[in-house]
Design goal:
about 250 residues, 10 strands, Alpha-D-Glucose-1,6-Bisphosphate, Chain A, domain 4
Length: about 250
């Protein structure tokens, strides 16, 4: 966690993080315009943020687009915020997000990117992503059901107040490469937003698994766009905790 604290210790780097959060997909050239110091200095700060995994750059043609990765901050939250404070902290954080964004326009390069490293092997991560019995351990108690074939349905099943099964999230499988990539559309049962896209990518890195989750194809700053930011952070943190310790966050 030293890299995270180092990255956040400088006010200019915190400002960079704020800008990337406010303007997801901002390119490097545009970012430098917000600072009076040199482009070289901005790039030096940005390099520290990228090394701490707080910002994820993605190439788009000749441009490099920047996105915030909330997972490192989620690890700090999980380590030092008690379970008793968790619900209140999450609620207050969501309220703060809503108030800050009210009346503001967000750039339309809208996507969420999450990167986490899990100390296990890639087959175990894949199984955890594709086994309904295991998704119940970290995916808000929901059971994933799918044939995992191209075009097949995917549902995350929970029980309602009457004990009846309902699909909290539904979608269609877009791509399956075992132990490497899983992509599907994503649609909440509880709202009328159009389907978006979720992609999990797995890569073995120095005895760990690098898991990258990209949630994109939002049609603006929708209810889904706002709600999944904290939701995915919690899910991925729960997945990491379960695979590394056998425990759940609940």
């Amino acid at each position: 966690m030293d890299k995270i604290f180092k990255a956040l210790s400088d006010k200019n780097r915190r400002q960079i993080l704020d800008l990337v959060k406010k303007k997801p997909g901002i390119n490097v050239n545009e970012l430098t315009e917000y600072f009076e110091f040199s482009r070289f200095a901005v790039m030096k700060h940005l390099k520290i943020m990228v090394e701490a995994e707080l910002i994820v750059p993605q190439k788009s043609g000749k441009n490099k687009l920047l996105y915030i990765n909330p997972m490192p901050i989620q690890y700090i939250y999980d380590r030092w915020i008690s379970k008793f404070s968790q619900v209140w902290a999450s609620s207050l954080s969501q309220l703060k997000y809503s108030l800050e964004e009210e009346g503001e326009k967000v750039e339309n390069n809208l996507k969420h990117i999450f990167v986490t490293y899990i100390k296990t092997d890639v087959k175990k991560v894949w199984k955890a992503l594709t086994s309904g019995e295991l998704t119940k351990k970290y995916y808000h108690g929901s059971e994933m059901r799918s044939a995992l074939t191209l075009g097949s349905s995917i549902d995350f099943i929970v029980l309602d107040e009457d004990g009846k099964e309902v699909s909290a999230v539904k979608g269609k499988i877009l791509e399956v490469i075992p132990n490497k990539k899983l992509s599907h559309t994503f649609e909440f049962h509880s709202n009328e937003d159009k389907p978006t896209r979720v992609t999990f990518e797995l890569e073995e890195v120095e005895g760990m698994v690098k898991l990258t989750l990209t949630h994109d194809e939002f049609e603006g700053e929708t209810e889904t766009y706002k709600s999944v930011f904290e939701g995915w952070s919690y899910i991925l943190s729960g997945l990491k905790t379960y695979l590394e310790t056998g425990n759940t966050l609940n």
